[in-house]
Amino acid sequence: MPSFDPSAQAAYSVQDYSPRAQIEGLEIVDLARFNDDGGAMTELARLDAGKVQGLPGFEARQMNYSVMEPLAIKAFHLHKRQTDVWYVPPSDKGLLVVGDVRADSPTRGEVRRIVLGDMRSRLVRIPPGVAHGVRNLMPARPMSIIYFVDVQFSVDEHCDEGRLPWDHFGAEVWETERA
Ligand SMILES: Cc1cn([C@H]2C[C@H](O)[C@@H](COP(=O)(O)OP(=O)(O)O[C@H]3O[C@H](C)C(=O)[C@H](O)[C@H]3O)O2)c(=O)[nH]c1=O
């Protein structure tokens, strides 16, 4: 076994492969993608009067389509009542950052970075009180987000579009990992 020089030895650590921190109420659902030589097909959601199968307690009241320019960051959005269910197509690639800022949550303070798209088809359920932001990781292409919400958008006293600064969890959370 080699021994390392003093500066490498001082900086040395073993990669941490332990499971990532969970956030209470945050769910990731893998979707089936049926592909053939002609293309691919994915069911995003089956709805029974707005209730989404496989996501108990979530009732879709609006569906949105959002486009982000290359490398753009939208962060952080924080809802008091609204749950979001996000989908980024497998052809795109984005970094979703979620942080639990609920005062009474067992996972309060946990921050997770989740790559969306990038060949995978997944829904991500983001409960109220979990701040969320996204970066388009593609340097030359717009990224699409399709998302369901259970509160209809309004600009009156019912508006639930809270915001936190983009660097609330530190600016480095948006950087590509270097390890
Ligand atoms: C959310 C929303 C917005 N708007 C109008 C209001 C503004 O004139 C314009 C941009 O609104 P906003 O700056 O809130 O949009 P985004 O920054 O793209 O954010 C939205 O998309 C990201 C991904 C989120 O997660 C947010 O929750 C959602 O607000 O669209 C509407 O007319 N209806 C709507 O449902």
Automatic annotation (TrEMBL):
GO terms for molecular function: dTDP-4-dehydrorhamnose 3,5-epimerase activity. Catalyzes the epimerization of the C3' and C5'positions of dTDP-6-deoxy-D-xylo-4-hexulose, forming dTDP-6-deoxy-L-lyxo-4-hexulose. The lineage of its organism: Bacteria, Pseudomonadati, Planctomycetota, Planctomycetia, Planctomycetia incertae sedis. GO terms for cellular component: cytosol. It comes from Rohdeia mirabilis. This is dTDP-4-dehydrorhamnose 3,5-epimerase. The record marks F153 as: Participates in a stacking interaction with the thymidine ring of dTDP-4-oxo-6-deoxyglucose. GO terms for biological process: dTDP-rhamnose biosynthetic process; polysaccharide biosynthetic process. PANTHER family: DTDP-6-DEOXY-D-GLUCOSE-3,5 EPIMERASE (PTHR21047), THYMIDINE DIPHOSPHO-4-KETO-RHAMNOSE 3,5-EPIMERASE (PTHR21047:SF2). Coiled coil: none annotated.
